[in-house]
Amino acid sequence: MPEFFFDSICPTGFFDFSNPTIESLRAGRHSDFTPMQNFLLIASTLILLCSFGYTLFRLGSGRMRPGRTNLAALIATFILLSADLWLRGQIERSCPINSLFDVVIFTAWSTTLIYLLVGSAYRLSLLGAFTTPLVLFLLLTAEFAPLDRSPTIRAIRDPWIEFHASLSLIAYGAFALAGLAGVMYLIQDRQLKKQKGGALLYNLPPITDLGVANTRLIWLGLALLTIAFAAGFVSGMQVNTIKFWTSATIWFAYALMVVLRQVHTLAPRRTATLSVVALAFILITLPAIQHLSAPK
Question: How far is CA 31 from the centre of its chain?
């Protein structure tokens, strides 16, 4: 059963692949990327960079309608990152989330995935203009930060643990989208209060739609994170105390937002603000959580 769930959410689980290049990597004769992996990562970065530049150009010219461009760029990025993760996963013989480098790439992939799944459902095409720079930032971090790219092969593969870890990162993708929707809400709220129009304001979705999307994305992320925690409990994995309380803090923060929104105690503007703060907390603590989770 856990193998089925793992194969359903991780892009490495759909295939079993073997060739001399991957076998040599598994044997330890290469410590870095294959040329194909480098190409996939660089191509993804360049596509997003061009899309972001085009968005800034359109914004500056007062013709802010880059929805289709951003969507096409994010679809292409999702395909390229899926291929990259698949190759990485075949080398590591597991879902590629065994190092901080892996986690950064997987988080970029999961954020893109959540946008493609829910962006159109919430009529938030312009959310792509905000998603693009976040995913671009993650990819640039993976490329230029001093992160170890060497493949990491776990001595023991536990599908429940892999399910827990990968679903947690997908939940973080949902929280990332919630934070971006929160940023859009706060921008529009500020401009409406100042009665200051502009290309960005006129192309943003109605502020009530942004508030609803922000709350529903928090709900989605919380549901995914709860299932991920349940899988971790079933696996019987030992968890570092710092990692446990950091993860618990994230869960309780979002759970509190959901409860307070349901009882109408927390206003949409404060929900948006808290979702942005919570996202910043996730991005800051993610390296520490991964360090404490890395295979020994």
Answer: 26
Please report, to the nearest 10 degrees, the dihedral formed by the alpha carbons of residues 8, 13, 16, 17 taken in order: 130
Question: What span, in angstroms and rounded, lies between the C-alpha atoms of 253 and 288?
Answer: 18
In angstroms, the CA 48 to CA 40 distance is 12
Helical spans, DSSP H, in 119-267: 127-144, 159-194, 199-203, 207-235, 241-262
% of the chain exceeding 90 in pLDDT: 41
Residue 221, φ and ψ in degrees, nearest 5: -60, -40
Contact status, residue 137 vs residue 112, Cβ threshold 8 Å:
no
For 165-184, the pLDDT digits (tens) are 899 999 999 999 999 999 98
The continuous run of DSSP H or E covering 275 comes out as helix 268-293
Q: Are 208 and 271 in contact (CB under 8 A)?
A: no
Distances (CA, A) of 53 to 48, 66, 74, 175, 257: 8, 11, 14, 25, 34
Backbone CA torsion sign across 162, 119, 121, 206: positive
Q: How far apart are CA 266 and CA 98, in angstroms?
A: 38
- CA dist 104 and 141 (Å) reads 8
How many Cβ atoms sit within 10 Å of the Cβ of residue 163? 28
